[in-house]
Amino acid sequence: MGRTNAFAVSVLLAFAGAAGTYATIQTLEVGKQGQSAALAPGDVIAGRKQKLDRWEDQLNRAATKRPPSLPGIPQYGPVAMPSVAPVAVSDPARVATPSAPKPNSPKTKAPNAPKAPKPPKPAPGDPPVIYVPSDPTIVYTQPVVEKTCSDAETKAIKQQVKSQIAPLEAEKDQLKAQIDQIEAQYKAEEAALRAQLEPLKAQADALEGDAKKQFKATYIDPLEAQLRQLREQKEAELAPLKARSEALKAQIEQAWTDAFANPDCGGA
Fold it and tell me: Which one of 17, 133, 135, 212 is most buried, by most CB atoms within 10 A?
């Protein structure tokens, strides 16, 4: 074999060896990619398994941490209301002393203005007639002067009304003291229930999913139901007291209104 042929064969063999090496390297890279793609689902499953294990540990810790038992709700007896005889106040100024008859001042009535005669209708072909209205009639009436009381008479009327509404004011003050006492009592009970709810809500916030729902249904929902029931009891107990207080307030205001709407200056 000549030297030229031997050199050509050597070049071809070197080129074939390089091509084979390159093909081998590409085949190995494709195999690695396929292997990593096949292992990807296993990593996802392992991650989910770890997350489930963490949730299971969290539920086990929550099950071992049982909150303290709830104290019973204190029962209070009904508040005894003092019996106060109702005082009828219809018109205190008139009941005290009869009022002197008022002098009837005659009222002057305006005379009826004479009616103007209707103008005759113009005959056909006559020119139109223009009518000028006359001046209006002015009638002067004497104003009615209302009766006024002096300062001493007004002071006497005020003293008389105060003495008449004194029982109403006393009953109103008693009702206000009762309302304040009941509201303070229910406020203390609500504060006790809220103090129990706060740590339980903090524990519920640390849970997730069904564990959180079960915890709330077992421990938090009963306390919130007791809190709503306590508010309803407070409203039911305070409603009649507040209604009576408003009625007394209306009677007192009516007594003052009646006393000065038609004051009896001579009787005061």
Answer: 212
